[in-house]
Protein backbone atom coordinates (compact mmCIF):
# COMPACT_ATOMS: atom_id res chain seq x y z
CA UNK A 1 0.00 0.00 0.00
CA UNK A 2 2.87 2.29 0.80
CA UNK A 3 4.64 1.58 -2.50
CA UNK A 4 1.44 2.17 -4.49
CA UNK A 5 0.39 5.17 -2.39
CA UNK A 6 -3.09 3.81 -1.69
CA UNK A 7 -5.18 3.34 1.42
CA UNK A 8 -6.82 0.06 0.34
CA UNK A 9 -5.93 -2.90 -1.84
CA UNK A 10 -8.33 -5.50 -3.15
CA UNK A 11 -6.75 -8.84 -4.08
CA UNK A 12 -8.62 -11.15 -6.44
CA UNK A 13 -7.38 -14.69 -7.07
CA UNK A 14 -8.74 -17.95 -8.41
CA UNK A 15 -9.70 -21.07 -6.43
CA UNK A 16 -6.15 -22.39 -6.41
CA UNK A 17 -5.17 -19.69 -3.90
CA UNK A 18 -7.94 -20.45 -1.40
CA UNK A 19 -6.16 -20.96 1.93
CA UNK A 20 -7.63 -19.64 5.17
CA UNK A 21 -4.24 -18.65 6.61
CA UNK A 22 -3.48 -16.45 3.58
CA UNK A 23 -6.95 -14.92 3.51
CA UNK A 24 -6.71 -14.14 7.23
CA UNK A 25 -3.24 -12.61 6.72
CA UNK A 26 -4.62 -10.41 3.92
CA UNK A 27 -7.36 -9.04 6.17
CA UNK A 28 -4.84 -8.44 8.98
CA UNK A 29 -2.65 -6.46 6.56
CA UNK A 30 -5.59 -4.34 5.36
CA UNK A 31 -5.93 -6.14 2.02
CA UNK A 32 -9.47 -7.13 1.00
CA UNK A 33 -9.31 -10.63 -0.53
CA UNK A 34 -11.73 -12.07 -3.09
CA UNK A 35 -11.03 -15.79 -3.61
CA UNK A 36 -13.80 -18.25 -4.54
CA UNK A 37 -14.06 -21.35 -2.39
CA UNK A 38 -13.27 -24.59 -4.18
CA UNK A 39 -15.99 -27.21 -4.08
CA UNK A 40 -14.25 -30.23 -2.61
CA UNK A 41 -14.42 -32.79 0.14
CA UNK A 42 -15.57 -36.39 0.51
CA UNK A 43 -19.27 -35.46 0.65
CA UNK A 44 -19.08 -33.58 -2.65
CA UNK A 45 -17.10 -36.40 -4.30
CA UNK A 46 -19.83 -38.86 -3.34
CA UNK A 47 -22.63 -36.57 -4.57
CA UNK A 48 -23.95 -35.57 -1.13
CA UNK A 49 -24.96 -32.10 0.04
CA UNK A 50 -21.97 -29.73 0.14
CA UNK A 51 -21.06 -27.93 3.36
CA UNK A 52 -22.65 -24.76 1.95
CA UNK A 53 -26.07 -26.44 2.22
CA UNK A 54 -25.66 -26.34 6.03
CA UNK A 55 -26.39 -22.96 7.67
CA UNK A 56 -24.10 -21.90 10.52
CA UNK A 57 -25.55 -19.88 13.40
CA UNK A 58 -22.74 -18.23 15.40
CA UNK A 59 -24.82 -17.30 18.46
CA UNK A 60 -25.38 -20.83 19.78
CA UNK A 61 -22.54 -22.18 17.55
CA UNK A 62 -24.67 -24.75 15.70
CA UNK A 63 -25.39 -25.79 12.11
CA UNK A 64 -28.82 -26.33 10.63
CA UNK A 65 -28.84 -29.14 8.07
CA UNK A 66 -30.91 -29.20 4.84
CA UNK A 67 -33.48 -31.32 6.72
CA UNK A 68 -33.94 -28.57 9.34
CA UNK A 69 -32.18 -30.42 12.17
CA UNK A 70 -29.62 -28.83 14.51
CA UNK A 71 -26.04 -30.11 14.51
CA UNK A 72 -24.11 -29.39 17.71
CA UNK A 73 -20.36 -29.46 18.44
CA UNK A 74 -19.20 -33.02 19.11
CA UNK A 75 -15.40 -32.93 18.90
CA UNK A 76 -12.44 -30.58 18.58
CA UNK A 77 -9.25 -31.16 16.66
CA UNK A 78 -6.64 -29.41 14.54
CA UNK A 79 -6.29 -28.76 10.85
CA UNK A 80 -2.77 -27.46 10.20
CA UNK A 81 -2.46 -24.59 12.71
CA UNK A 82 -6.21 -24.04 13.06
CA UNK A 83 -8.67 -25.38 15.63
CA UNK A 84 -11.34 -27.47 13.89
CA UNK A 85 -14.74 -28.24 15.45
CA UNK A 86 -16.96 -31.05 14.15
CA UNK A 87 -20.76 -30.74 14.42
CA UNK A 88 -23.24 -33.61 14.17
CA UNK A 89 -26.59 -35.01 15.30
CA UNK A 90 -26.51 -38.80 14.93
CA UNK A 91 -30.10 -39.38 16.11
CA UNK A 92 -31.52 -36.84 13.62
CA UNK A 93 -29.53 -38.39 10.74
CA UNK A 94 -30.85 -41.88 11.44
CA UNK A 95 -34.47 -40.73 11.07
CA UNK A 96 -33.97 -38.12 8.30
CA UNK A 97 -35.82 -38.44 4.99
CA UNK A 98 -32.91 -36.69 3.20
CA UNK A 99 -30.29 -39.10 4.54
CA UNK A 100 -29.64 -40.80 1.17
CA UNK A 101 -28.74 -37.38 -0.31
CA UNK A 102 -26.57 -36.40 2.67
CA UNK A 103 -24.63 -39.35 4.09
CA UNK A 104 -24.22 -43.13 4.25
CA UNK A 105 -24.23 -43.30 8.06
CA UNK A 106 -24.52 -39.97 9.84
CA UNK A 107 -23.23 -36.57 8.79
CA UNK A 108 -20.76 -34.33 10.53
CA UNK A 109 -19.76 -30.87 9.34
CA UNK A 110 -16.45 -29.26 10.27
CA UNK A 111 -15.82 -25.59 10.92
CA UNK A 112 -12.55 -23.88 11.74
CA UNK A 113 -12.54 -21.64 14.80
CA UNK A 114 -11.39 -18.70 12.62
CA UNK A 115 -13.74 -19.48 9.72
CA UNK A 116 -15.60 -16.18 10.13
CA UNK A 117 -12.93 -14.72 7.85
CA UNK A 118 -14.21 -17.02 5.09
CA UNK A 119 -17.82 -16.06 5.83
CA UNK A 120 -16.93 -12.37 5.39
CA UNK A 121 -15.21 -13.10 2.10
CA UNK A 122 -18.16 -15.19 0.84
CA UNK A 123 -20.47 -12.26 1.63
CA UNK A 124 -18.17 -9.90 -0.31
CA UNK A 125 -18.15 -12.26 -3.29
CA UNK A 126 -21.94 -12.59 -3.19
CA UNK A 127 -22.23 -8.78 -3.22
CA UNK A 128 -19.71 -8.39 -6.09
CA UNK A 129 -19.66 -11.55 -8.25
CA UNK A 130 -18.44 -9.53 -11.25
CA UNK A 131 -15.04 -9.06 -9.58
CA UNK A 132 -14.11 -12.65 -10.53
CA UNK A 133 -15.10 -12.10 -14.18
CA UNK A 134 -13.08 -8.89 -14.22
CA UNK A 135 -10.04 -10.77 -12.90
CA UNK A 136 -10.30 -13.48 -15.52
CA UNK A 137 -10.57 -10.97 -18.39
CA UNK A 138 -7.67 -8.85 -17.16
CA UNK A 139 -5.37 -11.63 -15.90
CA UNK A 140 -6.04 -14.78 -17.89
CA UNK A 141 -5.17 -13.29 -21.29
CA UNK A 142 -1.67 -12.09 -20.30
CA UNK A 143 -1.09 -15.24 -18.24
CA UNK A 144 -2.11 -17.51 -21.11
CA UNK A 145 -0.11 -15.52 -23.63
CA UNK A 146 3.03 -15.56 -21.51
CA UNK A 147 2.76 -19.28 -20.76
CA UNK A 148 1.66 -20.55 -24.18
CA UNK A 149 2.63 -18.17 -26.97
CA UNK A 150 5.86 -16.99 -25.39
CA UNK A 151 6.81 -20.43 -24.02
CA UNK A 152 7.39 -19.06 -20.51
CA UNK A 153 6.87 -22.09 -18.28
CA UNK A 154 9.15 -22.43 -15.29
CA UNK A 155 11.76 -19.76 -14.66
CA UNK A 156 15.23 -20.63 -15.92
CA UNK A 157 17.09 -18.44 -13.43
CA UNK A 158 17.57 -18.88 -9.69
CA UNK A 159 17.61 -16.29 -6.88
CA UNK A 160 14.93 -13.63 -6.57
CA UNK A 161 16.79 -10.82 -8.34
CA UNK A 162 17.50 -13.05 -11.36
CA UNK A 163 13.88 -14.24 -11.54
CA UNK A 164 12.70 -10.62 -11.32
CA UNK A 165 14.97 -9.76 -14.24
CA UNK A 166 13.73 -12.72 -16.26
CA UNK A 167 10.09 -11.86 -15.64
CA UNK A 168 10.67 -8.15 -16.31
CA UNK A 169 12.06 -9.08 -19.73
CA UNK A 170 9.03 -11.30 -20.39
CA UNK A 171 6.62 -8.54 -19.29
CA UNK A 172 8.40 -5.98 -21.50
CA UNK A 173 8.11 -8.27 -24.56
CA UNK A 174 4.46 -9.03 -23.75
CA UNK A 175 3.64 -5.32 -23.39
CA UNK A 176 5.42 -4.45 -26.65
CA UNK A 177 3.62 -7.23 -28.55
CA UNK A 178 0.29 -6.11 -27.08
CA UNK A 179 0.95 -2.45 -27.96
CA UNK A 180 1.87 -3.42 -31.53
CA UNK A 181 -1.33 -5.42 -31.90
CA UNK A 182 -3.38 -2.46 -30.61
CA UNK A 183 -1.74 0.54 -32.34
CA UNK A 184 0.60 -1.08 -34.93
CA UNK A 185 4.33 -0.37 -35.28
CA UNK A 186 4.04 3.23 -36.61
CA UNK A 187 1.66 4.10 -33.75
CA UNK A 188 4.07 2.62 -31.20
CA UNK A 189 6.99 4.58 -32.69
CA UNK A 190 4.93 7.78 -32.66
CA UNK A 191 3.94 7.18 -29.01
CA UNK A 192 7.60 6.56 -28.07
CA UNK A 193 8.69 9.81 -29.74
CA UNK A 194 5.78 11.82 -28.37
Short description:
With 194 residues, this protein is an alpha+beta fold. It contains seven helices and seven strands. The protein has helices spanning 20-28, 42-45, 90-94, 99-102, 116-127, 130-149, 160-193; strands spanning 9-12, 31-34, 55-57, 62-64, 70-79, 82-88, 108-112.
Give a structural overview.
- By secondary structure, the chain is α+β, with helices and mostly antiparallel strands.
- The chain has two domains: 128 residues, no CATH class; 66 residues, no CATH class.
- The protein has seven helices and seven strands, in the order βαβαββββααβααα.
- The strands form two sheets. It has a five-stranded antiparallel β-sheet with strand order 3-4-5-6-7, with no helix packed on it. A two-stranded parallel sheet has the order 1-2.
- The longest helix has 34 residues.
- The radius of gyration is 24 Å and the shape is elongated.
- The mean pLDDT is 87.
Helix/strand/pairing class, anyone?
A: alpha+beta
The residue-averaged pLDDT reads 87
Number of strands: 7
Could you give the order of strands across the largest sheet? 3-4-5-6-7
- The termini sit apart by 31 Å
Total domain modules = 2
Query: Which sheet architecture does the biggest sheet show?
Result: 5 strands, antiparallel
Unreliable parts: none
How would you sum up the global shape?
A: elongated
Query: What is the count of helical runs?
Result: 7
What's the Cα radius of gyration? Answer: 24 Å
Amino acid sequence: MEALGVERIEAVADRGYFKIEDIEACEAAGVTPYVPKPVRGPAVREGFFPKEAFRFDPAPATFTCPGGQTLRPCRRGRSRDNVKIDYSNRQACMACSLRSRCTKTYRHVSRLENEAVLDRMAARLAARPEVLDQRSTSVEHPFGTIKQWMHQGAFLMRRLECVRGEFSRTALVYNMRRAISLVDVPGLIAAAKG
